[in-house]
Amino acid sequence: TFLLKPSVEITTASRLTLVAALAIARALGHVEGIKPQIKWPNDIVIGGKKICGILTEMSSEGEDIKYVVVGIGINIYNREFPEELKDRATSIFLENGKGADRSKIVACVANEFERLYRMFCENQDLGFMVDEYNENKTEYTSLGLSPDGGLKVRDIDGKESEIISGEVSVRGIYGYV
């Protein structure tokens, strides 16, 4: 968890979730056997399964930010998940068969976050990281609607999953978005 007192406009504070997501994706990218991707706005996934979640909360008074808390939870040594999460959650251990050193992950996330946070506060926007962030996209083929309203999709490896929320850009046969 990071406790921050950023000198930014109150309307931009929520962007710290995106800063954290990129920092975590960078850090996890150094772990052998892990290819993280960002699921906008606050999840890190591997093979369509969530490995990390980010929660950002802010306390303010009028237009002044008192503080922002960025909480990060990374599944490192989980060997299994409850039945209802098995198809949607994973861990470093389940992905690479050995896990990773927690202290090294924490240090790497903190170092990456510090660099990105400093740049965010200096720039007051995300322009400095947009290109790298956008490299984390995943393309799917739509298979239709699920009974609970989710979008059933297939990735390029043929794995089927369901998207419940997050940013989705749809490009169809007519070419418009």
**Gyration radius over CA:** 17 Å
Please identify the structural class as seen in this structure: alpha+beta
How many strands?
8
The percent of residues in helical segments reads: 25-40%
Uncertain spans, ≥5 residues at pLDDT below 50? none
Question: Can you summarize the main beta sheet?
Answer: 5 strands, antiparallel
Mean pLDDT: 89
Strand order of the largest sheet: 1-5-4-3-2
What is the 3D form? globular
Termini separation: 37 Å
Strand content: 25-35%
User: What's the order of the H and E elements?
Assistant: EHEEEEHHHEEE
Q: What is the tally of helical segments?
A: 4
Describe the structure.
The structure is a single chain. The protein is an alpha+beta fold. 25% of the residues lie in helices and 27% in strands. The protein contains 4 helices and 8 strands; from the N terminus they run E-H-E-E-E-E-H-H-H-E-E-E. A 5-stranded antiparallel sheet has the order 1-5-4-3-2, covered by helices on one side. Strands 6-7-8 form a 3-stranded antiparallel sheet, with no helix packed on it. Strand 4 and strand 5 form a beta hairpin. Helix 1 packs antiparallel against helix 3. It is globular. It starts with a strand and ends in a 14-residue tail after the last strand.
